Structures are given as structure tokens and as C-alpha cells.
Amino acid sequence: MDVPPPLNRVYHLVWWQQAFAVVFLLFSVVLALTVGSSSVMNEDTAQPIKLVISILFPLAGLGMATFSFTTTVAFTADCVRKHSVFGDRSLPLRAIRGRRESLVRDNEGGSTRYLQIVPEDDRLRPLKFMKSYDFDDAFFQWFYALRDLDAESRARP
């Protein structure tokens, strides 16, 4: 039985990632104001590295906040689309070969789980996104009903 895709749904990053981005932005602005004001008040002890950090941190915080509030995974009648500040990518529903899942670990013990929707055409890149969107049961039922390409790869000798 084919599970229908969750049509006309838009999924956003989960609230805690958005909250983290806002907190990081606020922290970095306070840091920039503190470092900036101390550098202005004590011109003789101004350190260029502090000034650079006080500019880069708020820019990184602004980028994180922008990304976390604007990135989406959406389903239309004919495609699944990933939208972010880095661009739009879409894949026609009729051109999906299957799915993959991966876990990426960092050096500090943390990890991020990624979901991939793989196209039939090998010349196209898979749609890859973190599992930390506010996906509902309809999405997961559809996603896990797709052909499991990881299981097929493990089954091959």
C-alpha cells in the first residue's frame, strides 16, 4: 500500500533550535556592546581581536536566527521542496527512488540525524535535511514507506 505524501504541509525547524538562535544572537549583541564600549573607553588598550569577535559573533547570531526562522521543508501537489537562505531545492514526487538516514557525530559527543530523499536520476543530488523539523506523523508515515536504500545497501554483499 502506498502512503500518500503529506501534501500542502510546511515544516519548520523545532522551537528549541529557533530559541537557541535567538539566545545566541542576544548574547552576541550584549558581548559586542560590552567589548565595543570597553574598547572605546580605553583606547590605549583596544585589542583588534576583540573588535573582530564583537563584529563576527552578532553576524553569526543573525545568520543562525535568519536560517532557523526561514528554512522549511514543504510539500506541494507535485514536489517536495527545501527552502533556506542558501537557496531552494526541490524534487518531484514522481522522481523519488527512496530514502536514507544518516547520523553525523561531532568531536564533542553530539550528533545530528539527517534524512535524505533520493531521486531516481543519479545526476540529481538528494534532498538532505536535519530530522529536527516539526515533522508530523503524516510525514514520518510517508517517509518510512519509501524504499529503504540503506537496508538495500546493507543487504548487498
Element layout with pairings:
Elements: E1 10-12, H1 15-41, H2 48-70, E2 72-75, E3 79-84, E4 87-92, E5 96-105, E6 111-119, E7 127-130, H3 137-145, H4 149-155
Antiparallel strand pairs: 1-2, 2-3, 3-4, 5-6, 6-7
Helix pairs in contact: 1-2
Describe the structure.
The chain has helices at residues 15-41, 48-70, 137-145, 149-155; strands at 10-12, 72-75, 79-84, 87-92, 96-105, 111-119, 127-130. The protein has a 4-stranded antiparallel β-sheet. Helix 1 (15-41) packs antiparallel against helix 2. 42% of the residues lie in helices and 27% in strands. It folds into 2 domains: 15-68; 77-155, no CATH class. It is of the alpha+beta class and 157 residues long. A hairpin with a 2-residue loop joins strand 3 (79-84) and strand 4. It is elongated.
